[in-house]
């Protein structure tokens, strides 16, 4: 009995001394930029792609209320969802990212604004329900 207790005690020490394989991650909330930062990118890319900053901003405001973390879980049905300030579905984002010829980040509000401006410049404002509702197309 004494040997069993000693063996269990030694085993416990060995287990406690082993490095843990568990990794802990600290939760870092998403960064929410100020409205002015979003407006700065709207102005920049509206000028770069020669489109109306007001049309782009009106669409963005209607789609997400300037919220880069906005998610529409039922956009287009069949489990599709749209995210970010411009409310892109991932398939649309990926398609137009290739047409733009740049490697963009689907989760970046900056890249979402840039790609939205590019799409507006190519006559694709009709892709956004809000642009149609606002009479921009």
Structural features, described:
With 137 residues, the chain is mainly α. Helices cover 52% and strands 4% of the residues. The chain has six helices and three strands. The protein has helices at residues 2-17, 35-48, 53-64, 90-100, 109-121, 129-133, and strands spanning 71-72, 82-83, 88-89. The N and C termini lie far apart (85 Å).
Task: Write down the CATH topology.
Answer: Lysozyme
Major beta sheet summary: 3 strands, antiparallel
**From the 3D coordinates, which CATH architecture would you assign?**
Orthogonal Bundle
Compute the number of strand runs: 3
The percent of residues in helical segments reads: 40-55%
By helix and strand content, what is the structural category?
mainly alpha
Please give the domain count. 1
Share of β-strand residues: under 5%
Look at the structure and give the mean pLDDT.
85
As a whole number of angstroms, the C-alpha radius of gyration is 24 Å
- Oligomer status: single chain
Q: Please work out how many helical segments DSSP would assign.
A: 6
Q: What's the helix-strand series?
A: HHHEEEHHH
N- to C-terminal distance: 85 Å
CATH class: Mainly Alpha
- Largest sheet, spatial ordering of strands: 1-2-3
Poorly predicted parts: 21-25
State the shape: elongated
């Amino acid at each position: 009995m004494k040997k069993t207790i000693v063996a269990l005690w030694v085993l416990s020490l060995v287990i406690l001394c082993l490095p843990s394989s568990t990794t802990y991650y600290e939760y870092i909330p998403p960064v929410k930029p100020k409205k002015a930062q979003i407006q700065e990118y709207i102005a920049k890319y509206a000028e770069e792609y020669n489109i109306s900053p007001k049309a782009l901003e009106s669409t963005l405001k209607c789609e997400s209320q300037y919220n880069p973390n906005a998610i529409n879980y039922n956009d287009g049905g069949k489990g599709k969802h749209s995210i970010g300030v411009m409310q892109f579905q991932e398939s649309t984002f990926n398609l137009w990212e290739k047409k733009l010829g740049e490697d963009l980040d689907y989760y970046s509000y900056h890249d979402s604004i840039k790609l939205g401006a590019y799409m507006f410049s190519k006559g694709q404002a009709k892709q956004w329900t809000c642009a149609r509702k606002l009479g921009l197309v």
